[in-house]
Amino acid sequence: MAGGRILVTGGAGFIGSHTVDLLVARGYDVRVLDSLEPPVHPADARGRPPAYLPDVEFLGGSVLNRDLLRHALEGVDAVFHFAAYQDYLTDFSRFFSVNAAGTALLYELIVNERLPIRKVVVASSQIVYGEGRHRCPRDGVQYPGQRLESQLARQDWEVHCSVCQTPTEPGWTDESVVNPHNSYAIAKRAQEEIAIKLGQRYGIPSVALRYSIVQGPRQSFRNAYSGALRSFAVRALAGRPPLVYEDGAQLRDYVSVHDIARANVLVLEDPRADYRVFNVGGARAISVRQLARLVIEASGNDLEPEVPGLYRVGDMRHILSDVASLRALGWEPTRGQAEIVREYVAWAREQPDLRDTYSEAAARMRAMGVLRESVAVGANGSANRGS
């Protein structure tokens, strides 16, 4: 398919723009459709694509605009569908209208207009696994539900066996079992089903990629959802210690946006990926506290992470994605965690709009009841707020 015309919805965003860069470098003709909505983009963007987007055709607007999406699909050979809504807000209907209905509209137009689309690649998320695969030493493999609010409030952070209640051990989660816990996860799971099932039904080769936590340049400072690297970096570069939730022992497999872009183009070009779902992760377990220390080191400041006993309702304790299926197609993560952090911090230093946005994001999450304080219970039964 090299040299064809590709539509990238959400192509001005973090993952989208890096994928656009790689597509252009590989000789593709790229068209971008993006609504440039805050908080990912500045409130005054006014339809102007960001300066980092290469010289490609740009259409401003929403994937829910039927006429605009139909126009965007004209003359296109394949689609990367990255346009999505993600936040901690409780406007549940918007998650489904943008993520699920927007994907359904894409397939509706392809089918009803008989458009010769040769591949659709949909961006999904590791979040569809919930807590993912765990193992109890006594009772074996489990896919647990959400941790209870009552246990988090008393700083009982670990996932417990549903049978014997002892703490479980996190494992690497393959693509076979999903257990979405929140509105974003459920909407992403619906998006996958729409893409793979309608793709099979109507002969539209489709792929869904479940990204782990993606890190790298262009990750918005304004978006509270954009993750720990942003949160830690804006504080460390302002000379303030990163604030770590829970106890900092949570495990993640962070992945570079450059490796994500490579995976995207691989499944576009490889027919072995058709009608399948793949994990795309970093293939290494990193604790949140380790990440904070790497950010501090890259910032050059003499700081220690703060662990005040805060937690976010709905967060996963440990989630690690098994990337064996994608490896079988020849993909491998190439960027180490320290390298990812150094690149991001160096990029952040150069941004004219860099500022410590943590307090704003935290205040917003507190107001929504997402960010809460735990109570440590001492040996004598006394309770202490925080840790």
Features:
four-stranded mixed beta sheet, 11 helices, globular, alpha/beta, single chain, 33% helix, Rossmann fold, 387 residues, seven-stranded parallel beta sheet
Shape: globular
Low-confidence stretches: 377-383
Q: Describe the biggest sheet?
A: 7 strands, parallel
Query: What's the tally of helices?
Result: 11
Helix content: 25-40%
Count the E strands. 20
CATH architecture: 3-Layer(aba) Sandwich
Radius of gyration computed on alpha carbons: 21 Å
CA-CA gap between termini: 55 Å
Given this structure, which CATH class is correct?
A: Alpha Beta
Strand order of the largest sheet: 3-2-1-4-5-10-14
The residue-averaged pLDDT reads 92
CATH level-3 fold name: Rossmann fold
Task: Give an overview in words.
There is one protein chain. This protein is of the alpha/beta class and 387 residues long. The chain has one domain: NAD(P)-binding Rossmann-like Domain (Rossmann fold, 3-Layer(aba) Sandwich). It is built from eleven helices and 20 strands. Strands 3-2-1-4-5-10-14 form a seven-stranded parallel sheet, with helices on both faces. Strands 9-17-12-15 form a four-stranded mixed sheet. It is globular, with a radius of gyration of 21 Å. About 2% of the residues have low confidence.
